[in-house]
What does this fold into?
Amino acid sequence: MEYSKIGIALEARIGQELYNLMQGPVVEQVIREAKIERFQNEWKLILEGHSFKVTEKMASGLYSMFRAVEKKLGFEEPIDYFITNSPELNAFSLSRIEEDQPHIININSGLIRWLDNDELLFVVGHEIGHLITRNASIMRLIQFIFPDPSNTPLILQHKITLWKKLSELTADRYGYLASPRLDKCISAFFKLASGLDTGRINFDYEAYMAENDVILDFFRKEICANLMSHPINPIRIKALQYFSQSDLVNGKSDWNAGGRDEKLDAQINELIDILLTMSNSELDEQRRLFLASAGLIMAGADGQINQDEYKKIIRELSEFTIFPKAFLDQVYQSAKLEEIFSGSVAKIMEINPADRYPLFDFLINLAIFDNDLAEKEVAFLYHVGQEMFRFAPREIAQMIAGKIQSGFMPNVYAR
It folds into this structure.
């Protein structure tokens, strides 16, 4: 079963981009050479000392079950399994650093207590899926380079968050392959979400799936993708349903043949669109368009757009879109900069005129960013300020003057 077939294409692409961006091979070698094994070794010490290690002699039933999942998924690298005394319904995997080390999967006792065997197989298959895809290794790199997540650049934060969500969807597929009963996979989701026993409430699988579709439709129309690391359950459930019904899973498509399951990819891409949407707000859409178009026009007002100005526009866009560079390139290639710009200003002034202050501030900052304030840039500021944002000339002059005093450093090498 090839990962290239099972995995979600966008997840694999972003994961590789992140790995390359963080200089994966180099940093991993440094970690190995320096023996900085903080994440795995600290956890191993904690788990060995405070948790129950699943061995053939101590827990033959669980041991056999876990090894059977490894065999079914074709994963041959060693894994140590631990059970931690915690009522929280959670599990996690840690990839090894050294070749002679085992990977680690920890399962909280709450899962062992609440899940039946089929549901537990799904969870274990999901965690092994993270190891198969090497996503656990990428996650370790992210945690090593950014030990304080708040220091992660915004341009990376959203991409990492999206990648985490897609990684969960791919891992769910391995969970299904380990436990190919959709009803059991879904009841596992229900227990994880509610903490309830399905027997206690007479759980109705069909009703739950129908309700899931209603909730998912609500998220499509009303709610933007959140910033949690995991995708919302309605998306995970629907994605798993699509996978279970696909030709790839049901023997109508050859695992070893070239190409992907195009129908399945199209269904998943429709769900991914929900994750890509940081906001369904019309105002945020116009803000994105303004920042891209106005930024390009302002940056080019002096006859050239330098790389630093381009990066600044991308950083500003990072607050509103997961793929700011792609969005900026799309606006640039549309050859409709002036039209997009004027249209976005008109809409913003109609919806929320107060936005003109931070947006005009963005333009002034961009004008002085290269420490070379050109006459054409100032003329553009006056044009936009008076004609579009309805500022008085003196008000414009005062705002520009304030920025010059607080943030302008003459470029002594410019001339």
Observations:
- The beta strands are 52-53, 79-84, 91-94, 103-108.
